[in-house]
Amino acid sequence: MSDETVRVAERVDALVVETSEGAQGLQPRRRTDTDELGREVGAVLRQSGLTLDPNDVDYERRDDETMIINMGPAHPSTHGVLRLMLELDGEFVLRTKPVIGYLHTGMEKTGEVLSYVQGGTNVTRMDYVSPIANELGYSMAVEKLLEVEVPERAIWIRMMMAELNRIASHLVWLATNGMDLGATTMMIFGFRERELVLAFFEKTTGLRMNLNYVRPGGVAADLPDGWEDDVVLICDTIYERTFEYDELLTGQPIFRGRMVGVAPITAEECLALGVTGPVLRSTGVPWDLRRSMPYLAYDQVDFDVIVGTYGDNFDRYAIRLNEIRESVRIIRQCVEKMPKGDYRTQDPKVTPPPRARIDESMEALIHHFKLFTEGFHVPAGEVYSAIESPRGELGCYLVSDGGPKPYRLHVRAPSFVNLQAVPLMMRGGLISDAITVISSVDPIMGEVDR
Amino acid sequence: MTSLSLTAPPGVVTASVMASDLGCFPTSEQYVDLVRSFKEDGFEMCVDLCAVDYLEHLDRALPDGIVATRFEIVVNLLSLSKKQRVRIRVQVGDESPIIDSLFSLYPGTEAMEREAFDLFGVLFRNHPDLTRILMPEDWEGHPLRKDYAVGKIPVQFKEAPGPR
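Output (structure tokens, whole complex):
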């Protein structure tokens, strides 16, 4: 190992120099140390030296036999601004390194200057394809610190909206995955059906994306009149159409050729890398926080946790398609069981007085003003709260110092962690499969970079 | 809960933190051994690792025997078999925070530790690739530190200052 490879904690001065010269990217092999090389070739479990097969991992290859190319950050198939650096041997991928940060806007820092009331507008922009999940994770963390009881109806509204959002998110995935494989029909279909869900969101919350609908203490507004008909129509339509997707994709030989057996990953590798969500379930691990550590009212509804067997692209596709059907099942039960009552807590500490009271009572006006200028104070403490977003475990670690703003807001973004599985899935595959690998991990860059 | 308090080796301070998670407060010497013993005990996944800068709260409430420092690393482990979480909070120092990396135990902490280095300047020993991950390579400073002011960096498209 030459001196220029040193990027270690003991030599801070070298770190400054080293990290300022393109060090985030994939380095030539002579400048990469063994641990890092192992990571880039996807030898996750071989770190401990358990199953190291020198023929399997070609540490010894010389730089002039291979080619390093850059994919992204503005590549249409990278789902945003993901940049991948690939080391190729002809058409085969040997090493991969995702380079991220192109969409970093300091949202965790912004979270520290926004009050708890405003915080929802910030977190909803992280995973912009499933905003409800972000707001839910954040609100549940705040509520845990506040020890506020959320009314029954709010819980069921949240659950229904979260599942509608899961459908919308998986539809976007189906659409873009189809597009990546050249199935433009799927692209049109996916976005067409998603429109139904977004139209309902607009009717309920006023916005199609970045909703800020789930707030600490409940939800922003009650469901509109006649919501049952809308939701039932959405469920019926989308459930029927999932079988059209089946016809279009599942048995289609070209689609199967691109998906079956491509980019397998094992359960042990997923666990070691902290990968959650459909990618973990595709390896046969039945881990879904909705079932394993129930929150909201998921223990009161019937649904199946979909698992795969081989951990390949096709399993991940099948899981997402079937999760749409399961979400439809949950939503139907929500429509049936939706309780009556308040849609937000009546605790005056977090909920503003009703609009009519503001006209007649000075105290109500002051209260309203205080709540939206200063915000409410949250008892000091720290909490980690996790939910199952469409992409995996979405955690929110919140530290409060007793003031009206979070002292530290950290979001454990599933895409950020899942992206580490990409080098492993890519290894040995064709460069044309790289597209499907990125797609099947389903990273949302807003959430990765925050 | 009871089984958890048994797994923490003697000498490590434990306390129950919120939401029925167990909290452990090891010293930086005990840290990796503690995590290893949890891993052997069935905590298969390291879900989250992040840093917190307690610059304004050096006198915060911690269990007896723990000396509060400015930076803290918070690790959330998850056991799929036991359906339990455990939170480990390590004090890593004030001026030049440094701690051992968990990479050899959980390879998935690679990106999270890089993020903690990038945004807080916490260094990790034996990390394979300690470079910036979210910020540009030539960035100066660590933006999520509390003494790194918001608005310190001029915004590119802000209106230019007037002639007077």
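The mean pLDDT of chain B is 81.
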